[in-house]
Design goal:
The protein is mostly helical. The chain contains 4 helices and no strands.
Length: 70
């Protein structure tokens, strides 16, 4: 599979949970999913960013992407 099953493992892993780049990385996985014509997978990534990093700039962008998908 394209970005594969590893992407959900990376998102749920504690390995990078304290990284300042994690929110942006998850947001970008959402953008990649959209580019690969998988809006349902993209929604999961965008929702994850909004839920876990509500104050991050990536959350603002993720919300906008979620509005476009609906």
């Amino acid at each position: 599979r394209y970005i594969g099953d590893w992407s959900s493992d990376v998102c749920s892993s504690d390995l990078y949970k304290d990284s300042q780049k994690r929110a942006d990385s998850i947001y970008k996985l959402g953008l990649i999913s959209l580019a690969q014509k998988d809006p349902e997978r993209a929604k999961k990534f965008f929702k994850l960013v909004v839920q876990q990093y509500p104050q991050d700039t990536s959350a603002m962008f993720a919300k906008k992407e979620l509005e476009k998908i609906k």
